[in-house]
Specification:
35% of the residues lie in helices and 15% in strands. The protein is built from twelve helices and twelve strands.
Length: 324
């Protein structure tokens, strides 16, 4: 019997359908939250969340396929997986609506000062008024125009916001169809009232938003990151928040997760934080569950799985007789 290691903690959380699906297709399931270098030796497939999958782990494994429960693969040694002929799949678009809705929630919360007002009234029992912002006519800068960035743009445009986009991989006609304006990153930062990040974490995007980029933003502007923690230089962000370089920020992702209790981010009163829950809706979790499970079932049934990110492996699979 083929064995699957489930590392993604939300797999099967909202429905037993994906677990039943795997078992009905002849898979034995084992769950773990943490993984040691030799833990993969006993398994033929892995469904992984945020845990790191290293070269050492893959060298000492019998793993034939890795299904990422999400879209970011910065926690997987992709070069090693490719070298060993292991396809790595993702679940694109499964969480796009959920993350976009959290992004918009952050924009509303920041513009209306909801968290600050709640704490003042609920915790301090003080009935203090405060003046917020209307979103109509404000400018939202979206950095990265993949599936999530597009869903954010749709919602912002419905609210009467102007949308700027920076994404060198998106053609101008696509932006025109959305009613968005494509600009360089520096211009986006200078013009936007809200800046929302939706890029993967890689060598080009690590600390994309650093001290220099933060200095370009309006003092009345807000930064939102629901992408990956490493996209923002957290030390530079702390400085910008404390010095009033920007008005505030909202983060769902961090350099280190869980966020250490002594993180300087906790000393920033003009910051909203959530514990990486952008994709945590019942609908998104079930979609990701099923897409990851289907990738593994397809693979062991001799079909090339959908959404393989290390495409070099596909040719090897076809040579072995896999069907598309």
């Amino acid at each position: 019997m083929k064995r699957i290691l489930i590392l993604a903690r939300t797999f099967g959380k909202c429905s037993d359908e994906p677990v039943k699906f795997l078992r009905e297709n002849g898979f034995e399931i084992e769950r773990k939250e943490k993984i040691e270098p030799r833990d993969l030796k006993e398994f033929n497939a892995v469904i992984v969340g945020l845990q790191k999958i290293t070269r050492e782990m893959l060298e000492n494994s019998n793993v034939k396929i890795i299904a990422k429960h999400g879209v970011g693969v910065d926690n997987i040694d992709l070069d090693a997986a490719t070298e060993f002929g292991i396809p790595v799949t993702i679940t694109p678009n499964a969480n796009a609506v959920s993350v976009a809705e959290l992004t918009m929630t952050f924009i509303f919360a920041l513009s209306k000062k909801l968290v600050e007002l709640h704490k003042t009234l609920y915790e301090k029992r003080q009935f203090v008024s405060s003046t917020g912002l209307e979103l109509l006519g404000k400018t939202l800068g979206i950095v990265g125009f993949g599936s999530i960035g597009k869903e954010v743009a749709k919602r912002a445009l419905c609210l009467g916001m102007q949308v700027l986009v920076h994404d060198p991989y998106v053609e101008a006609n696509v932006l025109k169809e959305f009613g968005a304006e494509g600009v360089e990153l520096d211009e986006l930062l200078k013009r936007s009232d809200f800046v929302s990040l939706h890029v993967p974490l890689n060598e080009k995007t690590r600390h994309l938003i650093d001290r220099e980029k933060l200095s370009l933003m309006k003092k009345t502007a807000y930064l939102i990151n629901t992408a990956r923690g490493g996209v923002v230089d957290e030390n530079a962000l702390v400085e910008a928040l404390k010095n009033g370089q920007i008005a505030g920020a909202a983060l769902d992702v961090f350099d280190l997760e869980p966020l250490p209790p002594d993180s300087p981010l906790f000393d920033c009163p003009n910051l909203i934080m959530t514990p990486h829950v952008g994709a945590h809706t019942y609908e998104a979790i079930l979609r990701m569950n099923m897409m990851a499970a289907e990738s593994i079932v397809d693979f062991f049934n001799g079909r090339v799985p959908k959404h393989v990110v290390n495409s070099e492996v596909i040719e090897k699979l076809l040579e072995k007789g896999f069907k598309r």
